[in-house]
Specification:
The structure is a homodimer. Chain A is an alpha+beta fold. Chain A is built from 15 helices and 31 strands. In chain A, helix 2 packs across helix 11.
Chain lengths: 568, 568
């Protein structure tokens, strides 16, 4: 493709509307344009990237035995009423009426439609398992669409739905999809993590999120340095500490006037913050409870709410604490509580020896308390945020790190959640009717394009992973309009590379070299070749990989050998 | 692909909802399923056909220099208000409100959105011409969606829009698109006609429709036997007759009591219906006018309305005729009209000699009237429907035939209709701002699938043109579950054909041969190979082309040679 014939409206200035780097660079590079809030047009360059992602997704889905279908964007309300989501789904579900005043919605997801198809077409366990997918336009009416493709209202998703006669079959397909997703993100050249999103107590159903790692990610992803373990920080666990074997010291009450923080307390008492036990009064659905954490740990409200089986959880204020227990803030402790409250301790608190707590008297703290000897062991639970350096809960050797992640995929064992409500039943081997089990598997195809940029850019523009690049190679022909020999050499090279199956973008525009280089860097092709009268005279090409810091003058044979090795 | 692993829910019965043969066969063959009125899900087999059509469309668009983009389905009302179509477009435009109560619509077409893109991104004539296209989901809220894919509410369209600095450039791109459309329909193996849809007096802008010829088509297409001329019957012309050289006979008035029809009149007077002149009283926007046609011709109301520059045109009733002229129905004539009315005659009437008309007296007709001698020549115009056998208006030798057609494509020179309203302006060579010219070019991608079936079926099912077939070859393995050798031979053949790039559908199901044959005929693959223990023993394959009437027992070498010749 020649730049002179390609619709590539690049921008010099960063558009004010764009906060995220991917949004800025995709606008500046002429990949996308905004039509209205959360609605984007894919320009030719951007569509090429999108199609490459779609291509990899399709190949891996087919390889895993999924079959492609295409369902309508517009869905009848009746199905959503059957599943109960017409009422449950918030205003993100864009509802509309047709000319006959019948209710419809724009599909944000297709569980209802696929379940309707399945209940009409599947009669027997012999037709199972079945895994159907589509690559399709979806709509979610975000309240504040932001960040370009990252949180658009209209977007492109690959969604797959599988149907099974039993849990073993569901598990097998779930694993196939999990593996397919790993293959997809690996082939796309993205650094990613499959994150355990096991909802544990709530459903017991398996679920994993796939996150592209990038500093701008909305989610904190905890991951092991040695094994595959990764989890959302909200859910991440770590290996509990071993019991300490320190000799027990005699407990003593100390005057600690004016102390407000764990750090003050540790300093005044000459201990480490890890030996301080924080006592946090919380209201779990209005029920007061005392939570205990190590001084150097942070409360994880989501874990705590789940442990206490509470819909809402909040910290008590100083006033509420004084009112309920008569103790000033900062001097609470589990020993001799003025009122009988449930107490739950983080598991790391229960292995402490010689710890310090508030004494439930203003200006007084305990030092060298020990469980059993000085106070009873409370209920233990995992209440804390894991921290960098914690031991991995899965493997023996790894320690945990924390990265930011952008969710680009989600696999989920739905069980009978939709098939029960919509009546997706088949005859089983015994000839009896049985509700089928379902799995669902989503990939944010258009979001991947943005996530890839968040992970792959520098101060000059995008650095596309090879598989996603809109073209494989860019050729900059210097002053091509004035030098027919330069243009001819560039065209010959383009033809040679295209014959090898490479996609080439030839900048033959009548622009200054600086403008040409800036464009090429901005749009982020993996390889750049420059030809000018000077290099032509030497019979050499100036080559630079997009992430290289220097140019290399090389022969045509070397050019072909470098680009030969390029994976397609 | 193996049938045992492919989601192919075929139906034995014809669904009651389906009137058209394409709708019936696409449902029965497991290509599509209905979700709701006018909304269809593409099943795996149907999607394969759709993708093949899309593939050919994309290749020819790219070859013609168009660049692919992807615009949103959901469009802001503001743009439609700017173009004036928010009010003009009827209820087929599905309007909706987002959560912030802002108005949007589901795009039935994208002139507004592309014009908005162009006015933001194009600054100079140097960026023109530009031709952008997309393959995308569209929505038209049909009042009575019918005929399956033929008139669905949600459908897939290829729409292209071109931008130009002048009419020459528009004309050149229009011709490229016209040629690309011919290539597309030719490659798809469809019998089609490019139909002149020149709106003549109304706009003077060039426009062609592309129709797939099929008996079930909604449009009557007039076409020449010798040249490329084709037109919608509403607009079709024919070569006027030459003046007759018959000797003039003396006019006489004859008593013709009780005569009601042209046929009666001709019989009683001993002349041919071609010598009868019908006099039709019409109201053109409430203005009475007398139209004259030959007895064997039919009035074309659309042509007549255009000639009379009328928005509405209707025939007068017997009562109105008697009231206005005092003449009973059937005895009207242009000679000595009782009231002064404008008279317009079809051009074929004006070359008649010795014709017969009503005498404006009940029970009386004129015989052997002649223009000038007996009555003045009225205004001449083209008022009639062309008929089979008429002379072609374009070439010297051809005669006209009439076929039914399904519109699958439309190319149109829009001129400045949208660019003026939306302000798509560029600087021209003289540095002055100028409104650009636009063309638009649509193809009903999903409709093509239905139209192809309407043109290619028999009593057993679909006969796909090779380029559109979901698979190239079907292999029926007889009793494969019971004969491992048959299955192994079928699989080996599949592997050999796939290695040649052919797409193979292997029916390895545990079904009776009759069911296997019926399925294969229904889904309409171009080539069928059957293998059984019997043919295997002879080392032969039973081959049948989908349109063949007989099987052929052939060797593997012959199989490979037949399928070798298959265009991909």
């Amino acid at each position: 493709m020649r730049a002179s014939q390609f619709f590539l409206p690049t921008l010099k200035e960063t558009p004010a509307e764009a906060e995220l780097i991917s949004h800025q660079l995709l606008l500046r590079g002429g990949f996308i344009r905004r039509l209205a809030s959360g609605l984007y047009t894919w320009l030719p360059l951007g569509l090429r990237v999108l199609r490459k992602v779609e291509g990899v997704v399709r190949e891996e889905m087919e390889r895993a035995g999924a079959q492609e279908v295409l369902m309508p964007v517009v869905q009848p309300a009746e199905l959503w009423q059957e599943s109960g989501r017409w009422e449950l789904y918030g205003p993100e579900l864009l509802r509309l009426k047709d000319r006959h005043q019948r209710d419809f919605c724009l599909g944000p997801t297709h569980e209802e439609v696929i379940s309707d198809l399945a209940r009409r077409e599947i009669r027997s366990y012999r037709q199972l398992p079945l895994n159907l997918y589509q690559v399709q336009t979806k709509f979610r009416d975000e309240i504040r669409p932001r960040f370009g493709l990252m949180r658009a209202r209209e977007f492109i998703m690959k969604d797959a739905y599988s149907f099974h006669i039993d849990q073993d079959s569901l598990r097998a397909t779930y694993q196939e999809m999990y593996d397919a997703y790993r293959n997809i993100f690996t082939r796309l050249g993205l650094e990613f993590r499959a994150v355990d999103a096991d909802t544990g107590a709530i459903g017991g159903k398996a679920s994993h999120e796939f996150h592209v790692l990038a500093d701008s990610g909305e989610d904190a992803i905890v991951h092991c340095s040695a094994c595959d373990y990764a989890a959302n920080q909200e859910l991440a666990r770590s290996r509990p500490l071993l019991d300490s074997s320190d000799p027990l010291l005699p407990a003593e009450q100390r005057a600690t006037p004016g102390i407000r923080t764990v750090e003050d307390q540790a300093k005044v008492l000459g201990i480490s913050p890890a030996q301080v036990v924080k006592s946090l009064l919380v209201f779990a659905d209005d029920k007061p409870t005392l939570l205990l954490l190590r001084g150097d740990d942070e409360l994880n409200l989501i874990k705590a709410a789940r442990v206490l089986d509470a819909d809402t959880l909040r910290l008590a204020s100083a006033e509420e604490t004084r009112e309920l227990l008569g103790v000033p803030f900062g001097f609470l402790g589990p020993k001799d509580l003025p009122a009988p409250l449930p107490i739950v301790a983080d598991q790391r608190v229960l292995v402490l020896r010689n710890f310090s707590t508030g004494a439930n008297i203003g200006g007084q703290h305990w030092l060298h308390l020990n469980w059993e000897r000085d106070l009873p062991r409370p209920q233990a639970a995992d209440l804390r945020n894991v921290q960098v350096g914690d031991a991995c809960p899965h493997c023996a050797t790894g320690s945990l790190g924390i990265r930011r992640g952008i969710e680009v995929g989600h696999v989920f064992q739905l069980g009978t959640r939709y098939s029960e409500k919509l009546g997706v039943r088949v005859l089983n081997e015994a000839g009896k009717e049985q509700v089928v089990l379902m799995g669902c598997y989503g990939i944010g195809v258009s979001r991947i394009v943005a996530a890839a940029v968040e992970q792959n850019f520098d101060e000059r523009g995008i650095c596309w992973p090879a598989t996603m690049a809109p073209f494989d190679v860019g050729i900059v022909a210097i002053q091509a309009k004035k030098s027919p020999t330069v243009l001819a050499a560039a065209e010959a090279m383009m033809a040679r590379l295209e014959a090898k199956g490479l996609q080439v973008f030839l900048d033959d525009r009548d622009e200054r070299p600086g403008v040409q280089f800036a464009t090429m860097d901005l749009i982020g092709l993996p390889h750049r070749l420059v030809i000018s009268e000077k290099t032509l005279a030497q019979n050499l090409w100036e080559y630079r990989g997009r992430r290289d810091s220097e140019n290399h003058l090389i022969s045509e044979a070397e050019v072909l050998s470098i680009l030969q090795g390029e994976p397609r």
